[in-house]
Amino acid sequence: MAVQKSRKTPSKRGMHRSHSGLKRPALSIDSQSGETHLRHCITPDGFYRGKRVIEKAELEDKG
Fold this sequence. Notes:
By secondary structure, the chain is of the alpha+beta class. It has helices at residues 10-17, 59-62, and strands at 27-29, 36-38, 47-48, 51-52.
């Protein structure tokens, strides 16, 4: 088992952990519907890159 030779200083420990912070998700705004969505994912209404890719079932027809 590997054992470090000497103790890691607080400065080096902080530098090691500097990339561990949480980043905000990358968001995009759809050009057609104006909805905010995650990058490379469709919008809740079924649009991707300005084109409708999934038809949503109309809830009004069942009502």
